[in-house]
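haha ok so turns out i had the wrong file open the whole time. this is the CORRECT one, sorry everyone. sequence first:
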Amino acid sequence: MNINAKDITFNGTLFIRNNVLNTVVTFDGHNVIKSTTGSNVYVRNMTIKAGAYYYGSTEGGGSTNESGSTVITMGVGNTDKNFIVEPQAKVELYPGSKGTGYGQNAIYGFSKISIENGASFTANGSRPMIRTEYTAKNARVEVAPNAVFDVRTTDATEGFSFSYGIDYVFNHAMYLNLESPTKTSFMYAYRNSSIGIYGGKISVWNAANATQSWNPVEVFQLSNILSGKNMGTLTTSSAELKNTFGNLANYVRITNQN
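then structure:
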């Protein structure tokens, strides 16, 4: 069955478990959900309605994705599993920091994350923020124009962990920030993955925290990111960026902010 929730304030264990094929859990209004020994939700598909607000956190306590260390988990089947943030909606996710495994995530197991026009998605914590698993093909993160995408991890060995392939598409995002200041590898991919950034000034911070900025670029595409810290192939309209950008392991932040 589909579940529609609105104006929820919750403190406790797992809030919703509805891992049923083709069902959708939607949130509207103002929602603050804080879990202790379980994820906020365990679903196949989740939608934050236009203009709604969703705050999700979990205290953590284990290294699996359903133990309370991941805020939203999409389950393990390799069917389509979508997380949709509709226009002007705002989402803030704060995963648990207990444990040493890779199971502490903001979102786990999806096949598509869509941050629509003018929406906002923030995820901050100690472990990898976004991890994909059990997908039949590469998962996708699509960020529409004028949207905010701010993802930061502090202590993770792998800042953005792609156990299976994942493709990012940032289409003139208003605010873009991918940050992992302490890491062994900034990004890790078991399968080929990619990042495409369209529009805006791209800045890159290297491991020594020196700031390197380039002129505005119309196209920034990083494809075939492989395991072993391989940067892959960079395509950009900026010759300086193309000549200077190094292995992903040397960098801690990619942003379109000054």
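The mean pLDDT is 85.
again sry for the mixup
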